[in-house]
Write a structure and sequence with these properties.
This protein is of the alpha/beta class. It contains 11 helices and 11 strands. The chain folds into 2 domains: 3-109, no CATH class; 121-250, Rossmann fold (3-Layer(aba) Sandwich), CATH 3.40.50.1970. The protein has helices at 3-15, 20-26, 44-48, 61-73, 85-94, 132-144, 160-164, 167-170, 186-191, 214-221, 236-250, and strands at 32-34, 39-41, 54-55, 78-81, 99-101, 106-109, 121-126, 148-152, 175-180, 198-202, 228-230. Helix 4 crosses helix 5 (85-94) and helix 6 runs parallel beside helix 11. A 5-stranded parallel sheet has the order 8-7-9-10-11. A 4-stranded mixed sheet has the order 3-4-6-5, with helices on both faces. It starts with a helix and ends with a helix.
Length: 253
């Protein structure tokens, strides 16, 4: 349940347009709903401003469908990350309007009667084409939560003119998500070009000594650009979630 939905519900009770018993029934699943295999957090939008997101990996298609259905009943934007085609087939069987973004491995479902306006602007960068699955997970997350997204892909430090060619577009964003593997140098360079937060995402891209992203992670953690913060390896979702909150705060009021 979103904060605006709760205020609307209380206003209807105050006006006499909705019986208190009906309102109580609507609130019965707060703060969570026990599905047996999962306890769905319906209270998260009220606490943090964004709803719970489904991490589909490790869950059966039926479990993912159950969780998606619970969130859809609550009227929030539904996002499932690390989803497989099998997960999507289960969700689509009940919700034909669901969309599967194969590159980003995400399922999205919007059931809102009216589309929310865009709030904030996030730029998503990646060093190379091999980083695209993580970058797209970030971009889809930000778009699901109604942020304007600019994609700037394949702008790694091995060819700095590619990055400098889009410098003006970097300056338009409220926050940036920068995905890079190998040595993970791109966020430090970007951080030195902008005056907003940079969320760095190490990716598990590279040869043996990259240690499946650990080298990029350590490089980013040791960045000399003080506006760079780092999330876990391949965690495009986590970086975008934080970037959305930053962008919303920049446009609050």
């Amino acid at each position: 349940m979103k904060r605006a939905d709760l205020l609307h519900l209380l206003a209807e009770v105050e006006r006499g347009a909705l019986a208190p018993e009906a309102a109580a029934a609507r609130l019965a699943t707060l703060p969570f709903e026990d599905l047996g295999h999962t306890r769905v957090d319906h209270h998260r939008s009220l606490r943090s401003g964004l709803p719970e997101v489904v991490f589909a990996a490790g869950k059966t298609p039926g479990q993912v469908l159950d969780i998606v259905a619970a969130l859809a009943r609550d009227g929030v934007e539904v996002l499932a990350t690390r989803a497989s085609p099998e997960h999507f087939a289960a969700v689509q069987s009940r919700y034909p309007g669901a969309v599967y973004r194969e590159l980003g491995r995400c399922i999205t479902l919007s059931i809102a009667a009216a589309k929310e306006p865009l709030r904030g602007h996030i730029a998503i960068l990646c060093a190379g084409t091999s980083d695209l699955p993580v970058a797209e997970e970030a971009a889809i997350t930000a778009e699901t939560f109604h942020c304007r997204v600019t994609r700037l892909y394949d702008v790694g430090v091995a060819g700095l003119p590619r990055l400098l060619a889009v410098r003006e577009r970097l300056l338009e964003a409220d926050a940036l998500v920068v995905c890079a593997g190998m040595e993970g140098a791109l966020p430090s360079v970007v951080g030195g070009l902008v005056g907003v937060p940079v969320l760095a995402v190490p990716t598990s891209v590279g040869y043996g000594a990259s240690f499946a992203g650990a080298a990029a992670l350590l490089g980013m953690l040791n960045s000399c650009s003080p506006n760079v913060s780092v999330v876990n390896i391949d965690n495009g979702f986590g970086a975008a979630y934080s970037a959305v909150l930053i962008a919303r705060a920049a446009h609050r009021g």
